[in-house]
Amino acid sequence: MPYIPPVSTFVAEGLNTRATFFGCNETGTVFIVFLPNVAYTYPSGQSTEKIEYTIPETDGMVSPFQLHTCTLIFDIVSNRR
To answer: What DSSP line would sit under 13-38, residue for residue?
Structure first.
C-alpha cells in the first residue's frame, strides 16, 4: 500500500475535498485514486439507502464537469497525458 497520511493531515491539507493520488512515485505498490463525494457542481452526497433518483438528480450528479474529471483521471492513470 502507498503512504496515506493520517486523518488530521488529510483534512488540514484539504485532501478530502479534491481528487488525490497516492502511490504516484512509489515503486512496488498499488496506485490509489481517491475521489471524495463532495459537492463540486451538485450536492451529490446521497444516502446509501436511496435507490431511486429523479432525472434532474441524475443529471446534476453526472454533469459535464464530472465527466471531464473522470476522463482526465482515466488519461492520467492510463498515461495518455
So the answer is: TTGGGS-EEESTT-TTS--EEE----
Enumerate the β-bridge partners of residue 33. Answer: 21
**The C-alpha cell that represents 73 in the structure block:** 483521471
pLDDT exceeds cutoff 50 at 81: no
Write the pLDDT tens digit of every residue in 5-42: 999 998 999 888 888 888 888 888 888 888 887 656 67
Residue 57: partners with Cβ closer than 8 Å, 6 or more residues away: 46
Q: Which residues pair with 21 in a beta bridge?
A: 33
Residue 10 · residue 18 · CB < 8 Å: no
Residues 6 or more apart in contact with residue 48 via CB below 8 angstroms? none
